[in-house]
Write a structure and sequence with these properties.
The complex is a heterodimer.
Chain A: H1 2-13, H2 20-24, E1 34-39, H3 47-62, E2 67-70, H4 81-89, H5 93-97, E3 101-104, E4 128-132, E5 135-139, H6 147-159, E6 164-168, H7 184-196, E7 201-204, E8 210-213, E9 220-224, E10 241-245, E11 250-257, E12 260-267, E13 272-279, E14 284-286
Parallel strand pairs in A: 1-2, 2-3, 5-6, 6-7, 7-9
Antiparallel strand pairs in A: 1-11, 4-5, 8-9, 8-10, 11-12, 12-13, 13-14
Chain B: H1 28-48, H2 52-64, H3 68-101, H4 115-135, H5 156-167, H6 172-194, H7 202-221, H8 228-244, H9 280-303, H10 317-322, H11 325-338, H12 349-359, H13 363-373, H14 378-389, H15 392-404
The chains are: A alpha/beta, B mainly alpha.
């Protein structure tokens, strides 16, 4: 039953079969807005990762995002200098050459030493924060969510003056994929912090699917863990799921315009599988 | 003066209740009275057979995989109390055994006897550690490496239980105990080296520890016969010292107990002190024996909850490493013999191999070391599962003992 529901949702969303250029048109593409892409579980160095990267580069021509959020598992397997080249620099070369900045979180397959790899801008930190426009991004290391990190997250969010607060990390607090699903231990620790300090949107990876959750206690959760990896047919949609896509690799495009955050999820082949807008304060979502 | 009524006295006035009414049913007190012998008997059986921690672990696994939200909320609320406060009793009792073992008749007396096992403990721990470091990258979960102090862990109590089951009163048993003490001592150093606690204030910690040891020494000089000034005074200061230094406060009694006066002769490892014993260390043991069982049950519940869906290949890192403990021990013993040290009587290479398997059981201590070394999250879940799987060392020990015909399997 759940499986059939998943297929129905995906089929319903994909009826338009828009190409990359058209799908980008679903976003306002306003001048001066913050535009970014989101990928997770991408660092395989295999052809699906290259395909997604090529699709992102194509979209970038129409929708010039300045930033890519990496949700962890940026590198699989060996992670020597040659691997970093083949699993990151080569696939994303067009975007890097276009001046796009990558900001990574650590996944369970990432060597801690990669925090010193300059192109992913972690600057030697496991967790960090930065602001772009009217958005404060908080990047966490959920592999080990220790007390100092939690205290840091609280302090950072408390001091953040930006109207939008977005957190991203590898392990999803809510999710309906069969392989891993929700990380309840992390949720119990982290959710009170997100709620107390007004985080509106959370991006995670880990499960190799795309899923948008219905707002949980007012927070919008996305899983975008199919930026290179894919676990086909792994989604087992439940009442908490809004949209899921587990038939192909995918990445997200996001645009923040004032009090509205637009998102669009595009598959490896350029099909839009989900889109919508989140309005700040009202916490209402519309597709 | 109390009135005495004869059995032939007047019958009570109240009417006999009819069948099926509430009066037929025993009250809670009556039920407890009826069940008391069975409960007490089960409690003693569970304590003697070290079942409380496995019971706690089983409860945790069932709970976290059926109602994870309530599990994490409730255990999260008591985690600090159980792990950092109550576990002081468990490690205190283990340290008490070590202190008494250094008395005449104990396996650590004189210290020269302990030389070979303590040297061999380096092989027992460092070779599995090397394997852990080598294996984890292959499992493609590099963060598991942060739990490296857990490799050093050997469960003294559970291992002793298995060793006695296999060897009876063979000298291989004290040999195992000495190895376990050495390995866990190295593990404590590893934990200190890996410490990343937020309240790291070493000068305050050192100051408080000096104060704790001075108080313990002074109390001994004053010939205080009550255990409480040692435990609450010096032990309390020691707890604060470790806490401020960013080390594990559960080991608070470890530096204090050597100052506590104890029996002139060792009664043997894990032999209960008689009720007539008046020395402060025995009185501590008599008092702490049963509360510690409750603590172990709670620790099992708090520490062993692992959601099965969180597990990945990194889970295999710790079990793979501890599998190398028999090899590590053989190498360590070879090193010690090359240094001119001798194995105990009747302990040969076959016994050494079996003891190596028993030493692979990390269980309680491995759970504790893993939790102390790595913060909450999926990496810790994988390490905890590895700690639970290390109990398989008991099966490996029995199989190897049967194959090599040692201990109870000796022809």
């Amino acid at each position: 039953m759940r499986r059939a529901l998943s297929v129905l949702v995906v089929a319903g969303l994909a009826t338009g079969l828009l190409d990359a250029g058209q799908s980008a048109a679903l976003l306002p593409n306003a001048a001066g807005s913050l535009k970014f892409a989101v990928i997770g579980d991408n660092g395989t160095g295999k052809s699906p990762q290259f395909d997604v990267a090529a699709q992102m580069a194509r979209v970038h021509q129409f929708f010039p995002f300045e930033l890519v959020l990496m949700l962890g598992d940026n590198f699989y397997g060996s992670q020597g200098p040659a691997d970093l080249e083949s699993k990151f620099a080569r696939p994303y070369r067009p975007l890097l050459d276009a001046g796009v900045t990558f900001q990574a979180a650590l996944g369970n397959h990432d060597d801690i030493a990669t925090i010193h790899y300059p192109p992913i801008h972690m600057d030697g930190r496991r967790y960090y924060s930065y602001a772009r426009g009217n958005v404060r991004f908080v990047v966490l290391d959920t592999n080990v969510l220790d007390a100092p990190q939690l205290a840091w997250a609280k302090a950072t969010l408390q001091q953040a003056a930006e109207p939008w607060k977005i957190a991203y990390f590898h392990h999803p607090l809510y999710g309906n994929a069969g392989r891993h699903g929700s990380n309840v231990d992390l949720r119990v620790l982290l959710e009170p912090v997100l709620l107390e300090y007004g985080v509106q949107v959370v991006f995670s990876g880990h499960d190799h699917v795309y899923e948008r959750l219905k707002p949980q206690r007012g927070v919008h959760y996305f899983i975008a863990g199919s930026g290179g990896q894919l676990r086909k047919g792994d989604l087992q949609l439940s009442d908490t799921s809004a949209v899921g896509f587990d038939q192909d690799q995918a990445f997200m495009l996001v645009e923040v315009v004032g009090n509205e955050l637009y998102f669009q999820t595009v598959s490896r082949s350029g099909v839009t599988v989900d889109s919508g807008v989140i309005r700040r304060q009202t916490a209402r979502i519309g597709s | 003066m109390r009135a005495v009524t004869s059995e032939a006295g007047p019958r009570p006035r109240h009417r006999k209740p009819r069948a099926g009414t509430m009066r037929d049913r025993p009250t809670l007190r009556e039920r407890l009275t009826r069940w008391r012998p069975a409960i007490v008997g089960w409690w003693h059986f569970a304590a003697e057979h070290l079942l409380m921690l496995p019971l706690g672990a089983a409860i945790a696994l069932l709970w976290v995989n059926t109602a994870p939200e309530s599990y994490y909320r409730i255990t999260g609320a008591v985690d600090f109390f159980v792990r950092d406060v109550a576990m002081v009793l468990f490690f205190g009792l283990i340290m008490k055994e070590v202190v008494e073992a250094a008395a005449p008749g104990g396996v650590l007396h004189p210290w020269r006897r302990a030389a070979l096992p303590l040297v061999a403990a380096t092989g027992l721990t460092l070779i599995p550690l090397a394997l852990f470091v080598a294996v984890v990258p292959w499992l493609d979960e590099p963060r598991v490496i942060e739990g490296w102090p857990a490799v050093f862990a050997t469960d003294l109590a559970f291992g002793y239980f298995v060793a006695r089951a296999i060897f009876g009163r063979h000298p291989a048993v004290p040999f195992f105990l000495l190895l376990a003490i050495g390995a866990n001592a190295l593990g404590l150093l590893a934990l200190a080296a890996a410490a990343t606690a937020p309240t790291f204030d070493l000068p305050t910690g050192v100051f408080l520890m000096v104060a704790a040891l001075t108080l313990a020494w002074t109390t001994r000089q004053l010939r205080v016969r009550s255990p409480w000034p040692y435990l609450l005074g010096a032990g309390g200061l020691s707890w604060c010292a470790l806490y401020f230094a960013g080390l594990e406060p559960a080991f608070a009694l470890v530096p204090v107990l050597p100052f506590v006066p104890h029996a002139a002769r060792d009664r043997g490892f894990f032999v209960d002190a008689p009720a007539t014993a008046r020395d402060p260390l025995s009185r501590f043991e008599t008092w702490a024996r049963h509360p510690t069982q409750v603590v172990l049950l709670l620790f099992g519940v708090v520490a062993a909850g692992v959601p099965f869906r969180a597990l990945d290949w990194g889970t295999l890192g710790l079990p793979a490493a501890v599998l190398a403990k028999p090899l590590g021990l053989v190498v360590g013993v070879g090193l010690a013999r090359a240094m001119g040290l001798a194995l105990p009587d009747r302990v040969h290479w076959r016994e050494v191999a079996v003891v190596g398997c028993i030493a692979a059981i990390g269980f309680t201590v491995a759970l504790f070391f893993a939790t102390a070394a790595v913060g909450p999250g999926p990496t810790l879940s994988e390490l905890k599962t590895g700690a639970l799987l290390s109990v398989c060392g008991a099966v490996a020990a029995v199989v190897m003992a049967a194959a090599l015909r040692v201990g109870r399997f000796h022809a």
